[in-house]
Amino acid sequence: MGIYNRMKSVYNNPSPVVTTHNMKGIYNNTLTLGIFGTVVTTPNLKSIYNYFEKMYDMSIETFIDELRNTDLYIRHIYTEGGCYKFHILLSKLFRGSKPYISQRKNHIITKYRNNYYDIYGKIDNVDGYTKLKEEEKHMVEQWSFHKNNLLQLNECPHCEEPITYKGYEKFQTTE
Questions:
Q1: Is pTM, for the whole model, over 0.85?
Q2: Is residue 33 assigned to a domain?
Q3: Which residues, 6 or more positions from 3, have their beta carbon under 8 angstroms from its beta carbon?
Q4: What is the chain's percent helix, strand, coil content, to nearest 5?
């Protein structure tokens, strides 16, 4: 049983009774955490529980907005090779999420509760998207921003061409 459920159990049933199958680490309304045996009392458990409860109640749209706004490059990562990885992240946080692939087989979006999402948020026009088939999974699992590894840093002040950075590659030497 995870820490969240153990805290919830103490929060909802504050009694000194300890049952080993669902209260491991909790005794007399305290929770012992970590290697050093940090003790958290019931009032603190309640505030921690309330924090986790709010976090777990976060909507998918709020989560996507929060993630997208963490850094400018997040959008690039999840649209230039990382869209399937983004779906995997969403599916771990929002159970029941399903991957859909574009008609051109170059982008994955997530269906969750009859709505569709990518790193930009809710998508209204899903024409041409179909549920990802089992035989297509191998292809999309290979997609990676890291493998594309191309970032636009700026534009040249003279010719307005993009200045890009191609990441580290292993160089082969012949002898």
A1: no
A2: yes
A3: 31, 33
A4: 35, 20, 40
Structural domain span for residue 23: 3-56
Q: pLDDT in tens for each of the 175 residues of the chain?
A: 444 455 455 445 544 433 333 334 444 445 445 455 554 455 555 666 566 556 566 899 999 999 999 988 899 889 989 999 999 999 998 989 999 999 999 999 999 999 999 999 999 999 999 999 999 999 999 998 877 655 666 778 888 777 766 654 444 444 4
Classify residue 75: in a domain, yes or no. yes
Tell whether 38 and 96 lie within a shared domain: no
* Number of structural domains in the chain: 2
Task: Report the alpha-carbon distance of residue 116 to residue 123 in Å, rounded.
Answer: 5
